[in-house]
Amino acid sequence: MMIKSGIFVGMMVALCSAGAAAGGTFPAEGLSGVFVSAGGGQISVEGAAGGSVEVSPLKADGVCEVRAKVVGKELRITKQKGKDGAVSDCLIKLPAKLALKVKMGAGDLEVKGLSGPVAIHKTVGKTSLSGLTGDLKVDMVSGSLSGTINPSELSITGTGGRVDLSGLGCGVSVQRVTGGLALAWASPPSSEVRIKSAGGKVRLAFPADAKISTELKTKENGRIHDEFGKGAGTLVAVTLSGGSVDVVKAK
Predict the structure, then answer these.
(1) How deeply is 125 buried, as exposed, middle or buried, from its count of CB atoms within 10 A (0-12, 13-18, 19+)?
(2) What values do phi and psi take at 85, rounded to 5?
(3) Side by side, which strands form the sheet with 212-218?
(4) Span 17-60, pLDDT tens digits
(5) 127-166 burial, b if ≥16 CB within 10 A, otherwise e?
(6) Which of 97, 92, 93, 80 has its CA nearest to residue 33?
(7) Residues 98, 51: contact at Cβ < 8 Å?
(8) Cα 181 to Cα 238: distance, rounded to the nearest angstrom
(9) What is the pLDDT of residues 165-200, one digit of tens each?
């Protein structure tokens, strides 16, 4: 199926176990990124070798229906409901270096194996991440965020669920996370770590030999436990609206 810039595919791409898989393969030549829009259901996005973007059902007996078009250098994929309103769950494979943007309502999202920048906007559901090495921005209303990643920079805004990420080595910006936050660095942060307006329990774990300098504040008689303290090193600044903060040396 050929896709020309700015023109919708002339038909719905309907993929199921009995369908034609070739109908969900789009050339990646000339693309800089992929934008995925979905109202709900499940989506799994994987980095892959090759020069195409492939869309298929997440399960062997499942259904994945999408509309796709190219705008400029971006392939835009909009997930549709299946026949009779059935939930459409999709697996999307793309070259790892492409940028990825995801806008999703209720549902679960998995993203793994990408080296390009990733931006996620989600309303509700579980988000699982692994093997990401480019810039990462996450904006969530509610739901959990977890995984082992090593992005070049990390920004998280507005989630009412729990955030639990490990494998980090980058600077981090977090705002308005209220469901609990656990971040673990595998190597010292490359730039400042700033956490604002967070609530619940916050735990930050750094390598024991990391050179960091902490500025920790919490309101409403919150508890602070700091194993590093102020000194010469990368700034780690935490301001909590309530709850507790632990800054510890990883064991």
Answers:
(1) buried
(2) 80, 15
(3) 13-16, 63-71, 74-80, 33-38, 99-106, 118-124, 136-140, 153-159, 171-177, 193-198, 234-240, 212-218
(4) 333 232 389 999 999 999 999 988 899 999 999 899 999 998 88
(5) bebebbbbbbbbbbeebbbbbbbbbbebbbebbbbbbbbb
(6) 97
(7) no
(8) 12
(9) 999 999 999 998 888 899 999 999 999 999 997 678
By the 10 Å C-beta count (0-12 exposed, 13-18 middle, 19+ buried), 30 is classed as exposed
Q: How far is CA 74 from the centre of its chain?
A: 19
Of 58, 81, 72, 64, nearest to 101 (Cα)?
Answer: 72
R_g of the chain computed on alpha carbons: 20
Other beta carbons within 10 Å of 232: 7
Tens of pLDDT, residues 150-160? 999 999 998 77
Query: Which of 213, 216, 210, 205 minimizes the C-alpha distance to 232?
Result: 213
Residue among 159, 187, 191, 200 at smallest CA distance from 172: 191
**Residue 44: phi, psi to the nearest 5?**
-125, 125
Q: Which residue has the tokens 């705008």?
A: 71
DSSP structure string for 79-140: EE--GGG----EEEEEETTSEEEEEEEESEEEEES--S-EEEEEEES-EEEES--S-EEEEE
